[in-house]
Design a protein that fits this description.
single chain; 4,5-DOPA dioxygenase extradiol; Extradiol_dOase_DODA; metal-binding; alpha/beta; Protocatechuate 4,5-dioxygenase, Chain B; oxidoreductase
Length: about 260
């Protein structure tokens, strides 16, 4: 891989569901964000929808994973074929210690937590992309994982944690995109926004006991956990990042972060 003259940022984004592709507001925000970034030479994305240990990497060029149901058939016909990412896989493996081996999956492609936002941000699909599994929900371990990946940013790799800052789907009553956010979603979002603004990683990591709106905001935590990979990949995890997108979608927080 060529060396990038500078350091790519790292991102934490909300990825929504396939109808995000037809939402002009949120998709416009994601597209504009991508245009403001340096062009990456490769992308490594950690999605909430692949929980697997040990750390695993998707197969470059494999078919997409349509891990959703009940949506318009057009979404199951969508493709996102990106260039070969073998060089990126080799570099990722090289960043890991012997105690954290990397499994190269032979057939798994990108799931919707990866290809839906990337289809908006980089619609030409001309950048090598790999997805990494989420091997744990322990914030400290994920911070260390992000720290190991940090050197890749100096080589032009855009590191993305893809989740949803609130994800209490079982507790939603209104599934319209413009639905009002429930109190638990607003409370968790405001708490997280304050902690992110302060660069308070310890508070963010103590969400289970400190965050209002729990456990409704995250009855399971896989959509929150990718945040810690992003924070770990930051040059200084305690330095506040830029909260690029905020607001709600189906009542869930789409707050998204860029760290230097």
């Amino acid at each position: 891989m060529e060396t990038y003259d500078g350091r790519m940022p790292a991102l934490y984004i909300g990825h929504g569901a396939p109808p995000l592709l037809d939402d002009p507001i949120w998709s416009g925000q994601l597209a504009a964000w991508a245009q403001d970034l340096p062009r990456p030479k490769a992308i490594l994305i950690v999605s909430a929808h692949w929980e697997s240990a040990p750390v695993s990497l998707s197969a470059s060029g494999a078919e997409l994973v349509y891990d959703f149901g009940g949506f318009d058939p057009k979404y199951y016909r969508m493709t996102y074929r990106t260039p070969d990412a073998t060089a990126l896989a080799e570099r990722i493996a090289a960043t890991m210690p012997d105690t954290e081996p990397v499994h190269q999956h032979v057939s798994r492609g990108l799931d919707h937590g990866a290809w839906v936002p990337l289809r908006i941000m980089y619609p030409e699909a001309d950048i090598p992309v790999l997805q990494m599994s989420l091997p744990t929900h322990d914030p400290e371990r994920l911070l260390r994982l992000g720290e190991r990946l940090r050197p890749l940013r100096d080589e032009g790799v855009l590191i993305i944690g893809s989740g949803f800052l609130t994800h209490g789907l079982p507790f939603l009553r209104d599934f319209r995109i413009e639905a009002d956010a429930p109190g638990w979603s607003r409370d968790f979002d405001a708490w997280a926004a304050e902690a992110l603004s302060a660069g308070d990683v310890d508070t963010l990591a103590a969400y289970s006991t400190k965050a209002p709106g729990m456990p409704y905001a995250h009855p399971t935590v896989e959509h929150y956990s990718p945040l810690f990979v992003t924070l770990g990949a930051a040059t200084d995890p305690g330095t506040p990042g830029l909260q690029v997108i905020d607001g709600f979608w189906m009542g869930l927080s789409k707050r998204s972060l860029q760290v230097a």
